[in-house]
Structures are given as structure tokens and as C-alpha cells.
Amino acid sequence: QVQLVESGGGLVQAGGSLRLSCAASGRTFSMGWFRQAPGKERSFVAGVTWSEGWTYYADFVKGRFTISKDNAKNTVYLQMNNLKHEDTAVYYCAAGMTSYWTRLPKLTDFNSWGQGTQVTVSS
Predict the structure, then answer these.
(1) Coil, strand, or helix at residue 109?
(2) Residue 48, SS3?
(3) pLDDT one-digit tens code per residue, 24-69
(4) Phi, psi at 17, each rounded to 5°
(5) Exposed/middle/buried for 101, CB within 10 Å: 0-12, 13-18, 19+?
(6) What's the burial of 45, exposed, middle or buried (CB within 10 Å: 0-12/13-18/19+)?
């Protein structure tokens, strides 16, 4: 399985921005970002397919977050703008098992996970 390493989390004020990075040890079919707040389930945030660059977003981040990739570096990014207090969570990147999705991805669509990076948004 591919190894994933996230970076870029931190503390930011509401309305601010952060960019998360996820470096993969090899090429995968697709990549995704999930997040998990205390006491809540891990939920999908954004995903991208490696070949076509198709992107997928959860409704609650559309217009604020952008997922992108650098094929040469096997790295995926999550640019987060206009952050809100409710965006506070541990963010995880994951490697997908398919090259596209016909619906929003789920946890079971991914088979390798990073260690997570904390994002805290102060109100």
C-alpha cells in the first residue's frame, strides 16, 4: 500500500486560509481528503482522480476549498479558504482504489490513510 504523509495543519482565525499537503510514496488511482471532529464520524471533504483530474467536493466546502494535485511530486493539496470554526477537525488524506467515482466517495473507497493533521479555526 502507498504511504501518505500530511502536512500544513495549524491554528487559524475564522475567515483565514490554510493549505494542506499530502505526499504519497507512489501513484494511486485517486486521492481524497476526509476530516473528523471530536465525537463525530470521519466524513468526506474532497477528492481528485489522478489521470483526468476530476474533482469531487462535499457540499459544505464547495466554493471555499479546492483540491489539486502535482503529478510529478505525487502530492495532493487542499486549499482551504474562508475557514469557519466548524471546519475544526483532524484532516486525513487517503488513497482511492478506483480511478473515478459515480457518486461522492465514501470511507470504503479508500485503502490507505495518512496519520492526519490538526486544523483548528478560532472564532
Answers:
(1) helix
(2) strand
(3) 999 899 999 999 999 999 999 999 999 999 999 999 998 999 999 9
(4) -135, 155
(5) middle
(6) buried
